[in-house]
Amino acid sequence: MVAAVRTPIGKGKTNGALHGVLPADLLAHSLRELITRTGIDPVLVDDVIAGAVTQVGDQAVNIARNALLGAGFPESVPGTTVDRQCGSSQQAISFAAQGVLAGAYDIVIAAGVESMSRVPMGSSVLPGSDPFGLAFAERYADSLVPQGISAELIAAKWGFSRAQLDEFSAASHEKAARATKEGRFEAELAPIAGLSTDEIIRPGTTVDTLAGLKPAFYYEAYAARFPQIDWAITPGNWSPLSDGSAAVMITSGETARKLGLSPLARIHTTTVAGSDPLYMLTGVIPATEKVLARAGLTLADIDLFEVNEAFAPVVLAWAHDVGADLSKTNVNGGAIATGHPLGASGARLTTTLVNALEQRGGHYGLQTMCEGGGMANATIIERL
């Protein structure tokens, strides 16, 4: 990785600072910033691989290609859009790295975007459509639940109380607010539309303020079906709707030397894992174990972790089962505070992780994130 950048994350609502920016333009901004920071001729870019989850409306028709052309790249540069749910741009990074290793690319950009204010989550599922199919529904008749219910099931299975979830969430806001105040995000940010810092972070958030929020996913039918649930998930302990983009430039060491580019980090190992579709969000546990085994590393070798805070119990269950140190996890706050623009979050986490490793003098960083349908990507990067 020779450059990594992201936009500030805006509220994914009509009154959010980035609502007026079309998603293709939002992604184009990060792509253009990569070229500015590296100084390379964009004609050298072999491909742009971008993640976007809700590929409909303003995010339809291969947003990667539309954005790169909007960014002023030559018409000879191709682009493709991938969907691995919340891990889409982390998967884009994996595909990019694999392409470089295979010799298919010399320089490739992995990126992601989501404008949840303009393209609401779930809007790609048309009325009367069935994206699962009859065979899936027959096999997983008991597993077709919203992610919020999966999060509730995780909290119940691992025994996390509402207070524990709110404590974790308040700490995320505190860390993100402190990182913003101390300028720790500045190197990774490309301000846009008058927004220069993440819009969603709420300084001063406490457990007491979060305690006043009502459960977000309570339904009588689910309460009867899952009596073990205590209904602890609220808008305060899961990631808010968000708008944003992020992009990472990836090349080989030989090409970097030839162009005079200074590497930020090496993509050491990547993997992806599947998990139970009912619990859906626990794939971060086997993915972490799998990527460490592939890398020949142990948990003790990892200096910093970035685990996407889709819901507070996801990170807490992950830390419990893999034995990770939460003091090394999401050290600048996570998605509960900064936001989770679905297709952009994988590249956003990478951008934040590589900068945090630089600031703290760390060597290895591990990133993982849960994904809809029961999957998770995991990536280990090595600071150079």
What would you say about this model in short?
By secondary structure, the chain is of the alpha/beta class.
3D architecture notes:
Helix 10 (284-295) crosses helix 11. Strands 1, 2, 3, 4, 5 and 6 form a six-stranded mixed beta sheet that branches. Strands 7-10-9-8 form a four-stranded mixed beta sheet, sandwiched between helices. 36% of the residues lie in helices and 17% in strands. It is built from 13 helices and ten strands. The longest helix has 20 residues, at 162-181. A hairpin with a 3-residue loop joins strand 9 (364-371) and strand 10. It is α/β, with parallel strands linked by helices and 384 residues long. The protein is globular, with a radius of gyration of 20 Å.
